[in-house]
Specification:
Elements (H helix, E strand, L loop, with lengths): L2 H9 L4 H12 L1 H19 L1
């Protein structure tokens, strides 16, 4: 994450929770989806 995003959120009046919820969570959506798929496949393979 770049410092510019945090600075822009601060200028817009976003607090730490709002910054996390509206900036960091959407940016990490693809990473979370990939981790979900990997965990699902590993869990499924344990039962096969």
């Amino acid at each position: 994450m770049s410092d510019e995003l945090a600075e822009e959120a601060c200028i817009d009046g976003a607090g730490p929770l709002r910054f996390f919820r509206e900036v960091l969570l959407p940016l990490s959506k693809t990473c979370r989806a990939a981790l979900f798929v990997i965990q699902f496949i590993c869990g499924r393979n344990q039962y096969l």
